[in-house]
Amino acid sequence: MTDPTTARHLMVDSQLRARGVTDPRVLDAMLRVPRHEFVPGSLRAEAYDDHPLPIGDDQTISQPYVVAVMLELLQLIPTDIVLEIGTGSGYVTALLAELAAQVFSIERHRALASNARTVLAAMGYANVHVFTGDGTLGLPAHAPFDAVLVSAAALNVPPTLLSQLREGGCMVIPVGSLESQQLQFIRMMNGQPVISLRDSVRFVPLISDRD
Ligand code: SAH
Q: Which residue, 61, 65, 77, 83, has most beta carbons within 10 Å?
């Protein structure tokens, strides 16, 4: 089995750089964060492969390339306060923690949230806060956010999340049905969301308790 550091370099070169990801902060973060620590033990050998992997509770850790595209779109700076919906394994949470000042993350599955908290704490991330609950409600007490990253597919962009984005802030969110989704990049300008459509993607559904 290839050692994790070598596998991570290969992932960054062959899956990210080769497909046009250029942001040095994103590439560096993805070189640093040990993705294999976020997948179930039995799947460690596949942790750096070019596809999503199951993480339990019928959920998945996203494909590395899709994660890189989403992070590159957000153009985070070290002072940013970020909201993440769909903590899952905590892998993207760790990357956000490398790129921003504070990360507030919400996961609806208690067991996944608890596991992510444990892994992130063991890695020493002191700037992440993982909440259990319905992420479509956001976290009004900590808003407004500089950036919002949603890791599950919504039928429509939740208005509550838009309302928690600061003026000039941005959001990436997969929008569409189970079969067909498109990544949307949204910037809040003059109080209005300005939307641009990006890559076609496939995420697990965003499940709101209000549905
Ligand atoms: N970024 C994660 C991806 C996890 S998959 C990773 O790399 O591991 C998406 C996650 O969104 C799942 O864990 C799912 O339980 C969660 N999810 C779905 N709907 C949600 C909601 N309304 N609020 C919070 N989490 C939600």
A: 83
96 lines ligand 1 (CB under 6 A): no
Domain extent listing, the chain: 50-201
CATH 3.40.50.150 fits 50-201, yes or no: yes
Active site residue 62: yes
pLDDT in tens, 157-187: 999 999 999 999 999 999 999 889 999 999 9
Quote the pLDDT of residue 66: 97
Q: In what order do the strands lie in the sheet with 102-107?
A: 128-132, 102-107, 81-85, 145-150, 165-176, 181-189, 192-201
84 lines ligand 1 (CB under 6 A): no
Mutation choice for ligand 1 from 87, 105, 136, 160, CB with most ligand atoms inside 8 A: 87
